[in-house]
Amino acid sequence: MPTVNPLDYPPMDAIRRNHALEHATINVLTERCPTLRLVGRSDCEGFTLYGSVETSEVTRAVSEALQRLNAGESQLAIHPRCGTNVATGIVLAGLASYITLGNRKRSPFAKLLQVSLGLVAALALAQPLGTRLQKLITTSPDVSGVRVADIRCLKQGKLTVHRIKTVQVQP
């Protein structure tokens, strides 16, 4: 009996594809303007971008991101400042602290030294492990069934927010 990957089921698959398209869109936008600062958040219905960028630029970047992902540029689905990397760092730092502080037989100085070393190791591992987790779990660069349904600019005070709605077309 074949095993089934739970990440391939809706809505997880939709979130992973939208997450990949979000990253690819941010990567395309920052290729054009390296100083641009954006934050994104994906869900099963699309993704949201927070940052000062024109709607026409977002529209072009989403279209280019879809084309490039479909052409095989899967590295666009990965972003170094993804929340996956941050969460990985937090979990590793927590584990390092828990493991080193759990030993009551050590002196306070030894514990401080061990926690410090554990945190340095956690921070060193967070980026490569987070990137690996993005590739394996939190994104899917296979966006062949993703179509953009709508792109809207929603001003929230001084904050520019773009909502990109997608639909998942099954092949």
Characterization of the model:
This protein has 171 residues and is an alpha+beta fold. It folds into two domains: 9-78 and 140-168, 2-Layer Sandwich (Threonyl-tRNA Synthetase, Chain A, domain 2); 83-135. It has helices spanning 12-32, 55-70, 83-101, 108-138, and strands spanning 39-43, 46-50, 146-156, 159-168. A four-stranded antiparallel β-sheet has the order 1-2-4-3, with helices on one face. Strand 3 (146-156) and strand 4 (159-168) form a beta hairpin. The chain is globular and about 60 Å long. The mean pLDDT is 93.
Describe the structure concisely.
51% of the residues lie in helices and 18% in strands. The chain has 171 residues and is an alpha+beta fold. The model has no long low-confidence stretch (mean pLDDT 93).
Low-confidence segments, given as residue ranges, are none
Strand order of the largest sheet: 1-2-4-3
Overall pLDDT: 93
Number of helices: 4
CATH class of the largest domain: Alpha Beta
Taken as a percent bin, the fraction of beta residues is 15-25%
Looking at this protein, list some descriptive labels.
alpha+beta; 171 residues; globular; Threonyl-tRNA Synthetase, Chain A, domain 2; 2 domains; four-stranded antiparallel sheet
List the helices and strands and how they pair.
Elements: H1 12-32, E1 39-43, E2 46-50, H2 55-70, H3 83-101, H4 108-138, E3 146-156, E4 159-168
Antiparallel strand pairs: 1-2, 2-4, 3-4
